[in-house]
Amino acid sequence: MEKVRYRGEVKDNKPHGQGQFIEPNGKIIYDGECQNGKFHGHGIFFSKKGETYVGWFKNGIVDGQGVFVSSNGNVIFDGEWKCGKPGGKILYGETPDGIKYDRGLLPIKKRNVN
Known about the structure:
The chain is an all-beta fold. The protein contains no helices and 9 strands. The protein has a single domain, classed as Histone H3 K4-specific methyltransferase SET7/9 N-terminal domain, CATH 2.20.110. Strands 1-2-3-4-5-6-7-8-9 form a 9-stranded antiparallel β-sheet, with no helix packed on it.
């Protein structure tokens, strides 16, 4: 079975700096910054399901401002991520427990729309 390839800057024989991780079929799965062999800094991740995440990573984990988009182009979450999960100030989206937010205000289901 072929492995994912890396094309980009290296340091100490590990991905470090700007680069891309590419599947054997040529599909890019990550395009962005790396540090010590891990996604670190700003990048774009493309899932096998067709979802896309554009934003910040820390030590290989989604962390910081980012946007997660479904395969059909709908924004699932646009906001602050902590340790791979939505957290902090939510701009738009739905948390894992189903609470919907709009532009960092109150949860949609609790917001007074009058």
